[in-house]
Predict the structure.
Amino acid sequence: MQSIIDDLGRFRVPHTLRRDWSVGDAIGATLDEKIGILSLELANEEATHTYSLGVIDSYWRLSLPLTLRKTMNWGTGDTIFINKTSDTVAFTVIKKYREECTICKSSDLAIIMNGRGFCRSCSISIAKATG
Ligand SMILES: [Zn+2]
């Protein structure tokens, strides 16, 4: 399912994913920065999360904290994909990556990191430059 980040960093929980959550539920998020995946789940006292997304408002929106958006390079108007994992209460959010190399704009992507794509040639250049 897709959702779009608005100008205040909020996104709507898609209809088909609303069965397990309710308006007013507090949601926590854990980020896997390397692969650009954010796992969402109901916040409770036992779970530790990297980020708090606050509570689901009456329009079924959640807020992505600014630090998270900066870390992931997520901005206004960006499309994110939200998929339900096998766990019935955990959702996974993945930003739609740009379908071109971040550096040379080639459409032939070899790797995707932090939601950004890189072609083979640029990946090799980065690897060489960083040793
Ligand atoms: Zn490139």
The mean pLDDT is 83. The pocket of zinc ion is lined by residues 101, 103-104, 106, 118-119, 121-122 (CB under 6 Å). The helical segments are 66-72, 120-130. The longest strand covers residues 26-32.
